[in-house]
């Protein structure tokens, strides 16, 4: 069994330093901090997984406007939930958010089980750290968190060797987090730990000069701040190719199909995808006889966490389509989005929308990463 590294400071000294820093420099006006209900904290915590605060804020505000409580979220169609999630990436989070809301309504009478860490962690998409954050932030009761920001802070302060995703290393970090977490001011302490990691102990450029622990940080003393935490062992990222069919009818509508509920872009609406031009032509011969192919658009690459997808858009026209089917629909690019769309698909549909170019509308390059 791996032993927890020795603490860099006595517990009360660590807490005092952190909270004094937080009182002056912490973030006190985030939307989910007013008011701190379990529902609002939970939605924010799920959105903040692998996503920065500045990106999350407008999504959170739109989400709260449409789904002000867990019952309204549970009663919604998944399409609408994923539509409001479009652009945040990691769409399994959105699907699990919807599932968890339904579980809370059906099994807990609409009340989050914040009395129990195990019950919270059992909800879809909620692990030990997120459950702790919801309990601590919404009730003020002592609960320990260990999100990515906290892992980075503790790893650097104690120069913890090894990738934090390894079970033995993670156990060391949980031991440290448990040791430092106080009985009082838990709301502020947990927020302070997250803020310290997000604003000073950043991944690429840590601001050690302003850190309240710069005199005791082991990584800084060694001049090795950027070595910690250690990165996940890298594997070669494969590249896959696909052709996306941009099939339009005489009215300019585009054919979309819904992805399976699990897997890549689960539950989102996408363009029909094919592994080869022969497969695409065979599909057209069967479902859309008489369709005319246009010149393919320039291929582009969409990057996921575990592979790169090279996409070739293939526009086509058809006067009729035999058997659209339940999992397909015609979509008018000129109308506002009302369904969950995979990010590259949304970009392609936007390119089909009629518009008048102005200085404000001028196109600009962008990139995204999302599974």
β-sheet strand percentage:
5-15%
> What is the count of β-strands?
8
The N- and C-terminal alpha carbons lie at a distance of 35 Å
By DSSP (H or I, 4+ residues per run), the number of helices equals 14
Which percent range fits the helix content? 40-55%
Q: Report the average pLDDT across residues.
A: 90
**Largest sheet entry:** 5 strands, mixed
Query: What is the ordering of alpha helices and beta strands?
Result: HHHHHHHHHHHHEEEEHEEEEH
Structural category is: alpha+beta
What is the 3D form?
elongated
Q: What is the alpha-carbon Rg in Å?
A: 24 Å
Low-confidence sequence ranges: 356-371
InterPro entries: A/G_AdeGlyc_MutY, DNA_glycosylase, HhH-GPD_domain, HhH_base_excis_C, MIG/MutY, MutY_C, NUDIX_hydrolase-like_dom_sf
EC number: 3.2.2.31
Cofactor: [4Fe-4S] cluster
Keywords: 4Fe-4S, DNA damage, DNA repair, Glycosidase, Hydrolase, Iron, Iron-sulfur, Metal-binding
What can you tell me about this protein's structure?
The chain is an alpha+beta fold. Helix content is 41%, strand content 11%. The chain is built from 14 helices and eight strands. The chain has helices spanning 11-25, 38-48, 53-66, 70-74, 78-85, 92-108, 117-121, 128-139, 148-158, 167-180, 186-200, 218-222, 277-287, 343-352, and strands at 239-248, 254-258, 269-270, 273-274, 292-293, 300-303, 308-317, 328-331. Strands 1, 4, 5, 6 and 7 form a five-stranded mixed beta sheet that branches. A three-stranded antiparallel beta sheet has the order 3-2-8, covered by helices on one side. Strand 6 and strand 7 (308-317) form a beta hairpin. Helix 1 (11-25) crosses helix 11, helix 2 packs across helix 3 and helix 9 (148-158) packs across helix 11. The protein is elongated, with a radius of gyration of 24 Å. Adenine glycosylase active on G-A mispairs. MutY also corrects error-prone DNA synthesis past GO lesions which are due to the oxidatively damaged form of guanine: 7,8-dihydro-8-oxoguanine (8-oxo-dGTP). Pfam families: HhH-GPD, NUDIX_4. This is Adenine DNA glycosylase.
């Amino acid at each position: 069994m791996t032993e927890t590294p020795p603490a860099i400071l006595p517990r009360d000294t660590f807490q005092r330093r952190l909270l004094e820093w937080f009182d002056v420099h912490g973030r006190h006006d985030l939307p989910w901090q007013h008011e701190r209900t379990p529902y609002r904290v939970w939605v924010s915590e799920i959105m903040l997984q692998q996503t920065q605060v500045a990106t999350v804020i407008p999504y959170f505000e739109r989400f709260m406007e449409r789904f002000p409580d867990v019952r309204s979220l549970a009663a919604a169609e998944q399409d609408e939930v994923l539509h409001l999630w479009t652009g945040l990436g990691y769409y399994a989070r959105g699907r699990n958010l919807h599932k968890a809301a339904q579980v809370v309504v059906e099994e807990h009478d609409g009340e989050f089980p914040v009395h129990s860490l195990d019950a919270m962690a059992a909800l879809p998409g909620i692990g030990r750290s997120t459950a702790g954050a919801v309990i601590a932030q919404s009730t003020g009761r002592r609960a320990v968190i260990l999100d990515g920001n906290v892992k980075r802070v503790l790893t650097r302060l104690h120069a913890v060797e090894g990738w934090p995703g390894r079970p033995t290393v993670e156990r060391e970090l949980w031991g440290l987090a448990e040791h430092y977490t106080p009985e009082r001011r838990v709301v502020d302490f947990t927020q302070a730990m997250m803020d310290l990691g997000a604003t000073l102990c950043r991944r690429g450029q840590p601001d050690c000069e302003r850190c309240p622990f710069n005199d005791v940080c082991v990584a800084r003393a060694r001049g090795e701040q950027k070595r910690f935490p250690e990165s996940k062992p890298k594997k070669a990222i494969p590249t896959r190719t696909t052709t996306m069919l941009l099939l339009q009818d005489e009215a300019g509508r585009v054919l979309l199909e819904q992805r399976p509920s699990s897997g890549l872009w689960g539950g989102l609406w996408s363009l029909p995808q094919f592994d080869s031009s022969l497969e695409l032509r065979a599909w057209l011969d069967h479902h859309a006889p008489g369709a005319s192919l246009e010149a393919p658009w320039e291929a582009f690459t969409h990057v996921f966490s575990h592979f790169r997808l090279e996409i070739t858009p293939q526009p086509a026209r058809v006067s009729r389509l035999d058997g659209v089917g339940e999992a397909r629909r015609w979509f008018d690019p000129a109308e506002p989005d009302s369904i969950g769309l995979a990010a590259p698909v949304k970009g392609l549909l936007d390119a089909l929308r009629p518009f008048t170019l102005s200085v404000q509308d001028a196109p600009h390059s962008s990139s995204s990463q999302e599974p």
